[in-house]
Amino acid sequence: MNPSLDTLLLELIAWLGFARACAHSARVQDVLLALQMDLQRMIGPSVIPQTGDFSSFVAGRTRWLEETREALECECLSRGFSELPGDTVSGAILDLLSIMTRRMSQDHQKQSQADSTVREYLERLPAMLFTLARYEEWQADPQR
C-alpha cells in the first residue's frame, strides 16, 4: 500500500470509531466495527488470512458491504424513512461521514492509483454509511 492511502484509511477508521461510539443500534455498531476491521486489514495486507490473496479478500468484503447495505435498505424502505439528516446525533454523524468518505475517496483517486479492488470498496462505502444513518434513525424511532 502507499502512504497516502494508509493515511486515508486510518482517518476513516477513526471516524468510523466515532460513529460506532455514538450509535444506538447494536446492528449498526456491528457493521461499523466490521468496516473498521476491513479498512485495518487493507492497511496491513499481511494480516489477510492465508486462504486467498489481498484482491480476493477486498472483493469479498466489497460483496459483503453491498449485500449488507441492500438488506438494511430493504428493512428501512419497507417502513419508509426520511432522507434528511438530523433525526439523531448518530445518524447525522453517519451522514457527515458518508459525505466525507466520498470526498476523501475522490481526492485520493486523483492523487494516486490505488488497488482497483480497494478503490471499488471505497466507492461503495459512502452508500453504506448513508444507509446506516437511515437505519440508525429508524431504530431510534421505529414508529415513524
Task: Indicate the low-confidence ranges by residue numbers.
Answer: none
Distance between the termini: 44 Å
SSE topology string: HHHHH
> What characteristic shape results from the CA principal axes?
globular
**Biggest beta-sheet profile:** none
Radius of gyration: 15 Å
In terms of structural class, how would the helical and strand content be classed?
mainly alpha
Tally of DSSP helical segments:
5
Short account of what is shown:
This protein has 144 residues and is mostly helical.
Search tags:
144 residues, mainly alpha, 5 helices
Task: Walk me through what this model shows.
There is one protein chain. This protein has 144 residues and is mainly alpha-helical. Helices cover 76% and strands 0% of the residues. It is built from five helices and no strands. It is globular, with a radius of gyration of 15 Å. The mean pLDDT is 83.
Draw up the topology in text:
Elements lengths: L2 H20 L3 H18 L10 H24 L11 H23 L4 H25 L4
Helix pairs in contact: 1-2, 1-4, 2-3, 3-5, 4-5
